[in-house]
Specification:
heterodimer, A: 584 residues, alpha+beta, Elongation Factor Tu (Ef-tu), domain 3, OB fold (Dihydrolipoamide Acetyltransferase, E2P), Rossmann fold, six-stranded antiparallel barrel, 16 helices, B: alpha/beta, 3 domains, seven-stranded antiparallel β-sheet, 13 helices, 33% helix
Chain lengths: 584, 467
């Protein structure tokens, strides 16, 4: 027997007479069967947040309890999909409802007709437990999908078949210790609000290589780490998130467009299939899952989209993959929490956000990490959340709660963006708490001088800020030559190293090797200029050297031509020794 | 629907905006209602909260005259809808969609729900066609493309209406001869502004392909919530059903947000920043996101919302939330306006996020990106130097800095400044840029490519100024 609607107020609906209602059960609301979730029970009433627009819904319409929690389907076919906040594929919604998203559309998250070639790796008679790998499917050109034993199933593998199966076909059985046989399929379900269990958390010691120089060199994030990107509008948050989604060296990317612009999602949709993974040359879409809940799509589904995204990420992590999850923007998710909290007439905390905002933010980032998964493989989720603080002021609750739990802070700066310095990550305010943990990796995999170069470049930038304050008072001409030289090197670091053009074919991605050669050249230049100034050469003479021209062009040099270009540049830098002292 | 014949005389509580109607069993959320007063006046309202036994109705007119004995409320059985057709072209409507030009109401065409549905991101087509507005600061540095939403952030007393009118007059696509139809949403503006736009549209002949929705500052503020949705529903019909390219001008979005705050306060909701409701971002997005292009449909909707920033403060919630939704912004500067520069666009604060999609070879010109970057960079440096010389004096500057400083002055005088009737084509705009670059040393023009310097540069062989 179904319940009925007693009250409708925006995305919040109150139902009565709903049998067996439990917290977080998914319900179908109204004649159209809109998807909703029970978020409060109150003496015979179920308070439901509805994931679709409720306009036109009336009291008296039926409410049906599905008896299950808000869950996602996990199985082959996820990669390359684009979903709304509750895992409905947008292409299938389009096939049913046309160019505009209608409500009450019921579609399967993954294709149930498609047959997958399943190759078993587990042997009959083996003892299996949740998370164990049963076999493999080539899901895309880049990803081998590992079929895992679902939670709640353990015992002896009674039968396992190879061959062509849909995700709903039975591929084998497990005989439990109680003697009961349980079916195995290529897919399973998981409630999105519950983190999938892991065996152990591991320390982060491998950097996520992004090909973005300011990130990899100055403010790296570890695989399994967490990063926050707060910035006012127009500071390039989304471009940075897109760049990371494109070029990060993880096997899987989950991109959650949470309450953002429709055209931006379309941008990803049109661009990613054409972009090639720099390592394998395969289309980037073959490793990407998109979740698009744009700002004008229902607010409750926006709240769910973050959880849908991280659950999909956890599933691939459990196969032993490194996953990067980008959420753009967590502020819109927090606003969805606030809106629903307001409708529930909860006591507001700071700026109207619910008092549990901090807990929710922390819970989300806690699902990231580098871990030993249940089958003893190592996997990771790196979570990178954009934050959109009102007026760019990060003293507001969402930014503050995020900064408390994330360990990398890329501070986007409007004044850099206005000057078209991109990525507009401010080098004085940003930080990465992973620097020490990642030091060994950089020393071993890049170069033993790396740490020293990093420190030197940071100190030049710090020094520049100090000198600039003096310039404000006394003017540039009054500076000693040595300080003028520091300003000169800082400018080279800013313009020729930190600035990176996401839209340039070559500059969009820089390998660690190339980053090293670029930084090495700048440091060599620094030494030679220092020596020259020591000899009495004026900085004016050093401003337009051939060496500098070469360094400025370096970012546009293709990776395979870097070694010879680096040699030429070094030669030009050494020529600085021959500059003759001019009388002042 | 049968209930549309039922009149409820059970209003037991009323505020300036809300009516609580008892005994209503099944009013739909968002259903329209008519409130009939004893004196024969009729107010339109909408259900905000519907319960078994009570409906809360928000009225779109003043609740003056409502009493608890005689006022009758009738629920219409449908959500807010508008009959749309091409008959609306050349017509003027009020904030509830009633004719205000003395003409007959529109009955032809489908009645469409004005809330609109989200365009499936899968169906969207990336906006990429360059719109030439003839204004150098926009075309050259903050390029508008068809299907974009690019607001004008202004301040009270600044010439945003003239800028918008100039864009509407001059906007064209270089590759085709089709013009734009204009849907104009005047939200809480005064009659002088109305007259300005009407005269403007009449003079240019644009009125025949325009639809105007007007709510004057003296008219009920609640209608301002409905008005932009009427305009966009009309625009969607013209664009996606009638294959037109529609330019939607909405002014002043600040008045819209004020009305939103007024209703929120009346509903006793928990206020967000500066008293604006916490859902204002979501609400604004349901307006702005209705711009765009759709695959396999010919038309498009380009939005130019105008808003006045209270206290010229760009961090105020209205411009702030708008900037987070729209694809850039054109910011008008009070300082430039005082110095007599028109259009007073502050290019450094302005941005077009879709610019890169619409410019370059085959669209505008191959040097466009480089010229734009160079202009931004040199002007930013020049402006920084301006504040520096106030302290240390111009003498303390290096020769290079002096060149950048003078560049900034000439940039404002020659590139930014242009006549209200001056329609510059894109080549002209870029060439002005090159002319300005010749004030700099060739090596200082780092952002433009060497081959473009060779082709378009105005330096002579020695790298000095050539005229």
């Amino acid at each position: 027997m179904s319940g009925r609607i007693q009250r409708v107020s925006g995305p919040v609906v109150v139902a009565v007479d709903l049998e067996n209602a439990q917290m977080y059960d998914v319900v179908k609301v109204g004649n159209e069967g809109l998807v909703g979730e029970i978020i409060r029970l109150d003496s015979g009433k179920a308070i439901i947040q509805v994931y679709e627009d409720t306009t036109g819904i009336r009291p008296g319409e039926p409410v049906e309890n599905t008896g299950s929690q808000l869950s996602v389907v996990l199985g082959p076919g996820l990669i390359g999909s684009i979903y709304d906040g509750i895992q409905r594929p947008l292409d299938k919604i389009k096939a049913i409802s046309g160019d505009f998203i209608a409500r009450g559309v019921n579609v399967e998250p993954v294709d149930t007709k498609k047959k997958w070639d399943f190759i078993p790796t587990a042997k009959k008679g083996a003892k299996v437990k949740p998370g164990d790998i049963l076999g493999e499917i080539q899901e895309t050109s880049l990803i081998k999908h590992k079929v895992l034993v679902p939670f709640g199933i353990s015992g002896t593998l009674d039968r396992l078949d190879g061959g062509e199966f849909t995700i709903e076909d039975v591929i084998g059985y497990v005989k439990g210790d109680d003697g009961k046989k349980k079916e195995l399929k290529l897919s399973q379900k998981w409630p999105v609000r519950i983190p999938r269990p892991v065996k152990a958390k591991l320390p982060p010691e491998i950097p996520l290589i992004t090909g973005q120089r300011v990130v990899d060199t100055l403010f790296p994030v570890a695989k399994g780490g967490t990063a926050a990107v707060p910035g006012p509008f127009g500071s390039g948050k989304t471009v940075i998130q897109h760049q990371l989604a494109k070029w990060s060296d993880t096997e899987i990317v989950v991109y959650v467009g949470c309450g953002e612009r429709g055209n931006e999602m379309t941008d990803i949709l049109t661009e990613f299939p054409q972009l090639k993974d720099p390592k394998t040359g395969k289309p980037l879409m073959d490793r990407t899952i998109l979740i698009a809940n744009t700002s004008n799509m229902p607010v409750a589904a926006r709240e769910a989209s973050i959880y849908t995204g991280i659950t999909l990420a956890e599933y691939y992590r459990d196969m032993g993959y490194n996953v990067a999850l980008m959420a753009d923007s967590t502020s819109r998710w927090a606003e969805a929490l606030r809106e629903i909290s307001g409708r529930l007439e909860e006591m507001p905390g700071e700026e109207g956000y619910p008092a549990y905002l901090g807990r929710k933010v922390a819970e989300f980032y806690e699902r990231a990490g580098r871990v030993t998964v249940l089958n003893d493989e190592t996997g990771s989720i790196t979570a990178i959340g954009a934050v959109s603080p009102p007026g760019g002021d990060t003293s507001e609750p969402v930014s503050q709660n995020t900064l408390r739990v994330t360990r990398v802070f890329w501070a986007l700066d409007a004044s850099l963006a206005n000057r078209r310095h991109f990525p507009s990550i401010n080098w004085l305010n940003s930080y990465s708490l992973y620097i020490d943990e990642l030091k060994n990796w950089y020393i071993q995999k890049v170069n033993k001088e790396w740490t020293e170069m990093y420190q030197k470049s940071m100190s030049v930038l710090q020094k520049e800020a100090e000198i600039n304050e003096i310039v404000q008072l006394v003017g540039y001409d009054a500076l000693p030559e040595e300080e003028k030289m520091t300003l000169d090197i800082a400018k080279v670091i800013r313009e020729d190293y930190l600035q990176q053009n996401a839209y340039d074919e070559v500059d969009t991605f820089t390998s660690m090797r190339k980053q090293y050669l670029m930084m090495k050249s700048i440091m060599n230049l620094y030494e030679k200029e220092k020596a020259a100034v020591g000899r009495g050469v004026l900085v004016e003479q050093l401003l337009k050297t051939d060496a500098k021209q070469k360094i400025a062009r370096m970012k546009y040099v293709k990776e395979d031509q870097m070694d010879s270009y680096f040699k030429d540049t070094s030669k030009a830098i050494n020529d600085l020794d021959m500059i003759v002292v001019q009388a002042k | 629907m049968s209930m549309s014949d039922v009149y409820y005389k059970t209003v037991n509580q009323t505020t300036s905006v809300l009516l609580f109607v008892q005994g209503v069993k099944d009013a739909a959320y968002g259903e329209m209602a008519s409130v009939n007063l004893d004196d024969g006046r009729q107010i339109i309202g909408q259900v905000l909260d519907s319960r078994d036994g009570m409906a809360i109705v928000q009225s779109f007119g003043e609740t003056r005259g409502v009493d608890l004995e005689n006022t009758k409320v009738r629920f219409t059985g449908e959500t807010a809808r508008l009959a749309v057709s091409t008959d609306m072209l050349g017509r003027v409507f009020d904030g509830m969609g009633r004719p205000r030009d003395g003409g007959t109401p529109i009955h032809s065409g489908d009645r469409i729900d004005i809330t609109g549905s989200a365009i499936n991101p899968y169906s969207r087509e990336e906006p990429s066609e360059f719109i030439q507005t003839g204004i150098s600061t926009i075309d050259g540095m903050n390029t508008l493309v068809r299907g974009q939403k690019l607001p004008i952030f202004s301040g009270s007393g600044l010439p945003h209406n003239r800028v918008a009118a100039q864009i509407a007059r001059q906007a064209k696509i270089l590759t085709s001869s089709e013009g734009f139809s204009v849907v104009f949403a005047g939200i809480g503006i005064n009659s002088e502004e109305v007259n300005f736009f009407r005269k403007e549209f009449e003079e240019t002949g644009a009125l025949d392909r325009s639809v105007l929705f007007l709510n004057l500052s003296s008219e009920p503020s609640m209608e301002r919530i409905i008005l932009p949705r009427l305009a966009l529903t009309t625009a969607e019909h013209l664009a996606y059903e009638e294959n037109m390219h529609v330019l939607v001008i909405m002014t002043d979005m600040t008045n819209y947000c004020e009305a939103l705050r007024e209703i929120s306060a009346a509903r006793e909701e928990v206020p967000g920043r500066r008293g604006y409701p916490g859902y204002m971002y979501t609400d604004l997005s349901t307006i702005y996101e209705r711009a765009g292009k759709i695959h396999n449909r010919k038309g498009s909707i380009t939005q130019i919302p105008i808003l006045t920033m209270p206290g010229d403060d760009i961090t105020h919630p209205i411009p702030d939330l708008t900037g987070y939704i729209t694809e850039g912004q054109v910011v008008l500067s009070r300082e430039l306006h005082r110095r007599g520069i028109y259009p007073n666009v502050d290019v450094l604060l302005s941005l077009s996020r879709l610019m890169d999609k619409g410019i370059g070879p085959g669209r505008t010109r191959e040097d466009h990106k480089g010229v734009s970057n160079q202009l931004f960079s040199s002007y930013a440096t020049g402006k920084e130097l301006r504040s520096l010389i106030e302290i240390v004096g111009e003498e303390a500057l290096s020769a290079s800095d002096k060149r950048q400083l003078h560049f900034a002055d000439s940039f404002e005088a020659k590139f930014v400044n242009q006549d209200y009737y001056e329609d510059r084509d894109i080549a002209e705009t870029l060439d002005i840029g090159w002319e300005l670059f010749s004030m700099l040393d060739k090596t200082e023009a780092k952002r433009v490519k060497d081959e473009h310097i060779a082709k378009y540069g105005k330096w002579d062989a020695n790298g000095t100024i050539q005229h």
